[in-house]
Specification:
This protein has about 280 residues and is of the alpha/beta class. It has one domain: Rossmann fold (3-Layer(aba) Sandwich), CATH 3.40.50.1820. A hairpin with a 2-residue loop joins strand 1 and strand 2. The two termini are about 30 Å apart.
């Protein structure tokens, strides 16, 4: 479970790390990033998971979101995994499409060949990487964590939080894929990773999970109204409807003029960091 530091740079009084390790769950070497705030020099700090979207690596959020300033102010770490297994032996979309395969693990445990050998991003995020972090020298309080993400990663953050009551203090998302069983991105990914039995897909659909969620963890979602993927792929109104039916607390903020990009994320990331910091500070 040993980790290797690839790079370490000073940032807002803390340090931004790039690390790598061998993942047994995914069967390949994986890179991930960790921002440690200045408070980490004095002891363990709580952490926020960030799950990125389609085509991204752990670098996109680190380089574009501008989150480190606010994480330093709040005294929280940010952990950014990659979005899929990587390497020469890892299968990719046979047609070379960007919305499946490498960079598009969808945070599920694949059951279908050839994907099931490597594409187990759910287990990686929920179980393996937390164990790797706990065994490392990084001053992280792994037991005190929250989770957020963007697009495919927003889907991942919501479903992972809903399926693991008590594990996370808070959850939020930017432009999440709210109902993957009802959109082209989700249908392609879940159909390939899980097979054509649509009942199996429901286990990775936030709108399906909300009704039976054993924990009513409040959800914060920001969605740009100028997002070109809004109607066909993201469908936040379905999440709003599911939460209303289940009486699950949801704050859905529709942001006029904003699209799907990191300009949108950078604008509102401070609200999400503070949302999680408040939850992580509670006893």
């Amino acid at each position: 479970m040993s980790t290797e530091i690839v790079s370490s740079v000073a940032c807002f009084g803390g340090r931004q790390f790039k690390l790598k390790h061998r993942s047994e769950v995914l069967g390949c070497e994986m890179a991930f990033s960790v921002y440690l705030p200045p408070q980490a020099a004095k002891g363990l700090v709580p952490m926020i998971w960030w799950l990125s979207g389609l085509t991204c690596t752990d670098d996109n959020f680190v380089q574009k979101a501008g989150a480190q300033r606010y994480a330093a102010e709040a005294g929280v770490a940010i952990v950014c995994p990659d979005t899929s297994p990587r390497g020469d032996g890892v299968p990719d979309d046979p047609e070379g499409a960007w919305d499946f395969g490498l960079g598009a693990g969808f945070y599920v445990n694949a059951t279908q060949s050839p994907w099931s050998a490597n594409y187990r991003m759910y287990d990686y995020v929920v179980d393996e990487l937390p164990r790797v972090l706990a065994a490392s020298d990084l001053p992280l309080n792994v037991e005190r964590s929250s989770i957020m993400g963007h697009s495919m990663g927003g889907h991942g953050a919501l479903t992972i939080a809903l399926k693991n009551p008590g594990k996370y203090r808070s959850v939020s998302a930017f432009a999440p894929i709210c109902a993957p069983t009802q959109c082209p991105w989700g249908e392609k990914a879940l159909g390939n990773y899980l097979g054509q039995d649509r009942d199996q897909w429901r286990d990775y659909d936030s709108c399906e999970l909300i009704a039976e969620a054993p924990e009513r963890l409040p959800i914060l979602v920001d969605q740009g109204q100028a997002d070109s993927f809004l109607k066909e792929q993201l469908k936040p109104k379905l999440l709003e409807k599911a939460c209303a039916a289940a009486k699950h607390p949801l704050t859905l903020r529709m942001q006029p003029g904003y699209d799907h990009s990191y300009f949108f994320i950078a604008t509102f990331i401070v609200d999400h960091i503070r949302h999680h910091a408040r939850a992580l500070a509670d006893a």
